[in-house]
Write a structure and sequence with these properties.
124 residues; alpha/beta; 4 helices
Length: 124
Amino acid sequence: MSQTATASGMFEIEQEGDTLIVVPAVDLRELDYQRSEDWARKILELLNDTGIKNVVLDLHKTDYYGSTALGFFVKLWKRVGRRNRRMAFCNVSEHEKEILQITKLDHLWPICSSRIEALEAVKE
């Protein structure tokens, strides 16, 4: 069962079982710092729910993100990892994949070709 909500119009948030699925609704170019902190805080607060074990970032609606988004991804990963939970990316564009490779962040979490593959990766 999937539930959908939005966080400041920038993200669609879904939940499938014990996995939170975060879908950026727009390219995450360099954003106003306060606005980006607001949406990051809202998503991180969702991880306080003990029913949420894993996170999938589904980037099928985007082609680009900047350093603010990368910082958010790392914060999210640290919060998830602190509780021995898992995180995966899926539907990453070639440009987004290149950014993860250049920053060496592609070694921190699985980058999957589909949401189904990402959901399986976080359950392993």
